[in-house]
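sorry for the late reply, my laptop died twice this morning and i had to redo everyting from scratch. anyway the thing you sent over, i finally got around to it. pasting the sequence first so we're on the same page, its 127 residues, then the predicted structure underneath. double check i copied it right bc i was rushing
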Amino acid sequence: MLTIKEAIGHCVKQWREFKNVKQETLALELGISKAALSHIENGKTNITITRIEQIAHILGIDLLQLLSTPQQLMHAGKKTGDSPDGVGNTENNAVNNEVIKLLQEELQMKNRQLDQIMSALNKCLSS
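ok and here's the structure:
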């Protein structure tokens, strides 16, 4: 099973390649080294939401698009033959399903944390 870092990194790499942007170019626009971008794409480093938003902006897509691979979006919009990166649809679907599952789990955890924060704030306000 992929970690969230690996899933996001996979999507970043797929979009970067789909948009024909070199690693060096994206890294330069982000103000980071090519090695740092490689670590993001390979899921070897934590990435902030701010950085994810920067990447999406540079690639000309929105945040939600970035969290889906281009092949997934193409497949949803129309039936296509080969995917842009030559990776088979079965592999892409498996990765996309993992990304979706991980993001859903993360969202559930964040919702529980938000509920706890709201509860604590309500207690504070009622005191």
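The chain has seven helices and no strands.
thats about all i looked at so far, will dig more tmrw
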